[in-house]
Amino acid sequence: MTLISPSRRVRRTPFSDGVEAAGVEAFTVYNRMFLPTMFRSVEEDYHHLKSAVQLWDVSCERQVQITGPDARELIQLLTPRDLAKMKDDQCFYVPIVDETGGMLNDPVLLQPDADRYWISIADSDLLLWVKGFAAARGFDVEVTEPDVSPLGIQGPKSDDLAAALFGDKVRDLRFFRHMKVEFQGREFTMSRTGYSKQGGFELYLEGSEYGMMLWDALMEAGKSMDVHAGCPNLIERVEGGLLSYGNDMTEENSPHECGLGKFCNSDADFLGKDRIAREAAEGPDRRVAPISIDGKLPLCDRAWPVLIGDTQVGQVTSAIWSPDFNTNVAIGMINRGFDDPGTSFQIQTQAGLRDAVVAPKFWN
Amino acid sequence: MTLISPSRRVRRTPFSDGVEAAGVEAFTVYNRMFLPTMFRSVEEDYHHLKSAVQLWDVSCERQVQITGPDARELIQLLTPRDLAKMKDDQCFYVPIVDETGGMLNDPVLLQPDADRYWISIADSDLLLWVKGFAAARGFDVEVTEPDVSPLGIQGPKSDDLAAALFGDKVRDLRFFRHMKVEFQGREFTMSRTGYSKQGGFELYLEGSEYGMMLWDALMEAGKSMDVHAGCPNLIERVEGGLLSYGNDMTEENSPHECGLGKFCNSDADFLGKDRIAREAAEGPDRRVAPISIDGKLPLCDRAWPVLIGDTQVGQVTSAIWSPDFNTNVAIGMINRGFDDPGTSFQIQTQAGLRDAVVAPKFWN
Fold first, then answer.
1. Which end of chain A is more exposed for a tag (fewer CB within 10 A), N or C?
2. Which residues of A touch B32 (CB under 8 A)?
């Protein structure tokens, strides 16, 4: 790992002071904003995430806010998922695809208030796609990036921590639903979502100036639960098969390739419909798969070709050692016919070839 | 400075192996790609840049490639600059603005071949804006990010180095013009451009597989010129008043605010025309200015408020000590009436207040 140079362009967050005080060791950059990647060590953070509760500065999940009379019509055009099925308090995972059916982002859509939508984005400037589309078509909408920064509460003790600060009603919040919580006389939207399989919430901080008050209050309330600053954990997310946009899928991949076919159920005229309809009928040419790899691995910082003899049949894009499952866990995109569980092949890493096999399912 | 975690999402470049072998010390992330920021030290790199020649891995200046019959019409709609004035071999600095006149990017447009345009971008996914606009309006174009990675040759000995590899004809290339050069039997586009005031070229590597061959050949050819791996240098760029998108301007700023009024000369119906016409007539409410700051500065990793008493009259967004000019050089955006040379005010840094004054002009 190398050092990262600070500049305004790579943005700090409302929680950066807290993250630094908690001893962050490494970052990545996500939507031109700092995202912590390690506090104690990736393995220590992992064990703690699975046993206690962590605060995650996921401010980099920026919001594309859409208001105005045409908001819903615009969004429906941009996703293959049928928005008519979305409940008022629901968080809706919506693949966003371009006109060729390629994934541009895999965000969560919610309607925090009757008059506005938030698209909570992965790592691409989806704002520009939505704005460009709206401007070109003359939709009556306003598309902005508001001062909203999500704070994750993740881990098995998340309900206890959230209840300590916001009351027991948070325990009744259903998976992928949102509610309002109150803090210091202000209302914030909180959802039962998050980028781990350990349970928890995302609290949408609106107004950067309240960031550190909220961070400090949660740290204080969570002392007895061994709360610690944390972050999305590479081991845990690969075990759980949580895809990362830019790592495991790019604009070259369709929703069906990414295992997101079930979210392609709209009858409206959305972009990319031709490819999506064809792949729904015929199946995609390649598909995301869980892969178990033998031997010692270097850092997976590039796509690793998957080989059978000299023939490339896919690629691995995330991989790391799993202490709990005693194997290297990995996510790959594998050509049709080579993605059945038990299929063996080799992985070309920058440190040489490694034997690998398609696992029956993701581990968590 | 903290460590940066590797992942596929933050992309390596065709020259990364060379950059690492040359002993890179720090990176930033730019268009989700590594951009080196320091090799020996920022000051040592700076003195070397001003006296010798450097190879810069600026692959992160990604290209938005536009082909198809409607390409030119589409581009003209997206910029206030009149494309009719662009020569075939010219590199055209084109502010790209949204429908409100806010800057989305400040790229360079060129036409490397008769049938395609490249928009060589700063740090935002302009690809999505152009694609979204084209898809929504049904323009007959194809908009892609091709496998093209610019390599900078910068410094006073740039002509000597380029001539050593590509022949003496490169010496006749005019400022902001491009030509074809040959390497290993392949043609590449090279322009007399670059993000320094020291002179030099940008070579548009097309085909990642040729990256290290080109890097190694230039390193070999430049031995007698003390060639070294380098990168955009913060001191040198602030001295020269080279703005950085995301640092010194964002989508909140208009071209006139950024000092780019001279590039707003199109009579066509471009986006954001209302604001741009109004500011052309009345002047913008704030403007980029060179600022000299007293005292020891912390790292400028956030916008610093510019204060007269308790009143904020602007912000500073890039600042660093200049050994050659014996002052802290800075770039700010200052409200009208407070941007005249000699105006004094204070800067609120994270380490306290500093006295400052508007300089007569940028230093280089």
1. N
2. 29, 123, 246
pLDDT digit of tens for each residue in chain B (364 aa)? 689 999 999 999 999 999 999 999 999 999 999 999 999 999 999 999 999 999 999 999 999 999 999 999 999 999 999 999 999 999 999 999 999 999 999 999 999 999 999 999 999 999 999 999 999 999 999 999 999 999 999 999 999 999 999 999 999 999 999 999 999 999 999 999 999 999 999 999 999 999 999 999 999 999 999 999 999 999 999 999 999 999 999 999 999 999 999 999 999 999 999 999 999 999 999 999 999 999 999 999 999 999 999 999 999 999 999 999 999 999 999 999 999 999 999 999 999 999 999 999 999 9
Residue B156: exposure state from Cβ atoms within 10 A (0-12, 13-18, ≥19): middle
Mark yes or no for CB contact A128/B123 under 8 Å.
Answer: no
Burial class (CB in 10 A: 0-12, 13-18, 19+), A168: exposed
Residues of B in contact with A28 (CB under 8 A): 4-5, 7, 9-10, 29
Tell me which chain A residue has its CA closest to the CA of residue B5.
Answer: A28
Tokens of B201: 């070229």
**SS3 readout for A65-77:** EEECCCHHHHHHH
Distance from CA of B167 to the nearest CA of A (A): 36
**Look-up of token digits 């200046």:** B61
Query: CA-CA distance, A292 to A44, in Å (whole number)?
Result: 22
Dihedral (Cα; B332, B336, B337, B340), 10-degree rounding:
40
Tell me, yes or no, if B83 comes closer than 8 A to chain A by beta carbon. no
Question: How far apart, in whole angstroms, are the C-alpha atoms of residue A266 and residue A280?
Answer: 12
Complex ipTM value: 0.96
Q: How many residue pairs bridge chain A and chain B with CB atoms within 8 Å of each other?
A: 171
Reading the block at residue B98, the tokens are: 């949204």
* Whole-angstrom distance, CA of residue B328 vs CA of residue B323: 9
Whole-angstrom CA distances from A276 to A96, A165, A220, A253, A268 are: 12, 44, 48, 11, 13
Contacts of B272 (CB under 8 A, 6+ apart): B80, B97, B98, B99, B100, B101, B102, B254
Q: Which amino acid is at B313?
A: V
Residue A152 carries which DSSP code?
Answer: E
Distance, CA of A339 to CA of A219 (rounded, Å): 44
- Angle, CA of A159, A160 and A163, to the nearest 5°: 80
CA angle B79–B83–B88, rounded 5-degree value? 135
Rounded distance between C-alpha atoms, residue B243 and residue B333, angstroms: 11
Inter-chain residue contact A132 with B132, CB threshold 8 Å: yes
Q: Are the beta carbons of A128 and B129 separated by less than 8 Å?
A: yes
Structure tokens at A24: 């962050």
Q: Which of B239-266 are b and which e, b meaning 16 or more Cβ less than 10 Å from the residue's Cβ? A: bbbbbbbbbbbbbebbbbbbbbbebbeb
Collect all residues of chain B within an 8 Å Cβ-Cβ radius of residue A253: none
3-class SS of residue B213? helix
Rounded Cα distance between A84 and A325, Å, is: 40
Yes or no: say if A229 and A26 are a contact pair by the CB < 8 Å rule.
no
Least CB-CB distance to B8: which of A132, A271, A301?
A301
Q: Which residues contact B214 (CB under 8 A, 6 or more apart)?
A: B151, B183, B203, B205
What sign does the CA torsion over A334, A335, A337, A338 have?
negative
**Contact A300/B8, CB-based, under 8 Å?**
yes
Q: Show the tokens assigned to B137.
A: 């309006």
**Residue A330 bridge partners (DSSP):** A291, A319
